[in-house]
């Protein structure tokens, strides 16, 4: 059981986030197609999810949201389909690298069935996949424990004065949360989803909507955005 001095605060924040955002939709529900989750996790790098949705719609329309079908497409065709997500040439190469990993493992199902630590290690060894993308694939596609840290996490918790101070180091932030939260895949997946929704709808980078936020009473950075890394 993971319990330390930060556990009560993190769980109280979780409960308030759930109250605020339980009604909102999340793009990686439990029944999401694993390959689509993997593709989305790669395409969302350095862009908004709305752009990824446009690219996924094109891929879906072309029948390309399948590892074998996508791997058989000419690189230029993949670039064309993922263009709405930005940096389309790089992202087409990243998808190709991921498809090579799938092929080397024998199938997507075999890849995602690896133990979480092994899967994460192989993903990180794949060109174009960093910690945030790897953890998103582990927790949302493989449905195994992984705690995703992103800029939204650091924004919200820095404003709240909770978390590692004066650093944006991914591993340090992840260790902070893992040490305080139960090692529960569903909790970790839901926590990250709530963080993303809160950052998009209320705790925005500029002009945060503090008057609608149930965390405002415990937020030193309310109304000012102070504490943003």
Question: Can you walk me through this structure?
Answer:
The chain has 229 residues and is mainly alpha-helical. The protein folds into two domains: 90 residues, Endonuclease Iii, domain 2, CATH 1.10.1670.10; 108 residues, Endonuclease III, domain 1, CATH 1.10.340.30. It is 58% helix and 0% strand. Helix 5 crosses helix 6.
In short:
This protein has 229 residues and is mostly helical. It has helices spanning 7-21, 34-43, 49-61, 67-72, 75-82, 88-105, 108-112, 116-124, 131-141, 151-160, 170-180, 185-201.
Q: Indicate the CATH topology of the largest domain.
A: Endonuclease III, domain 1
- Arithmetic mean pLDDT: 93
| Series of secondary-structure elements, N-terminal to C-terminal | HHHHHHHHHHHH
Strand content: under 5%
Helical amount among residues, as a percent range? Answer: 55-70%
Question: Which architecture of the largest domain per CATH?
Answer: Orthogonal Bundle
Radius of gyration: 18 Å
| Structure class | mainly alpha
């Amino acid at each position: 059981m993971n319990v330390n001095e930060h556990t009560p605060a993190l769980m109280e924040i979780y409960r308030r986030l759930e109250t605020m955002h339980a009604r909102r939709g999340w793009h990686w529900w439990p029944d999401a197609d694993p390959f689509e989750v993997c593709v989305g996790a790669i395409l969302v790098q350095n862009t908004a999810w709305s752009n990824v949705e446009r690219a996924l719609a094109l891929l879906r329309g072309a029948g390309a949201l399948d590892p074998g079908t996508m791997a058989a497409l000419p690189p230029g065709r993949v670039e064309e389909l993922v263009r709405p997500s930005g940096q389309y040439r790089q992202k087409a190469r990243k998808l190709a690298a991921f498809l090579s990993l799938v092929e080397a493992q024998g199938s997507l199902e075999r890849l995602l069935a690896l133990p979480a630590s092994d899967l994460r290690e192989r993903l990180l060894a794949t060109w174009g996949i960093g910690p945030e993308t790897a953890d998103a694939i582990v927790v949302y596609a493989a449905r195994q424990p992984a705690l995703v840290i992103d800029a939204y996490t650091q924004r919200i918790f820095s404003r709240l004065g909770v978390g590692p101070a004066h650093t944006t180091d991914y591993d340090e932030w992840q260790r902070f949360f893992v040490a305080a939260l139960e090692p529960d895949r569903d909790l970790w997946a839901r926590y990250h989803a709530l963080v993303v929704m809160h950052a998009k709808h209320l705790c925005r980078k500029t002009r945060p909507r503090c008057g609608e936020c149930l965390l405002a009473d415990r937020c030193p950075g309310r109304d000012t955005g102070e504490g943003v890394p």
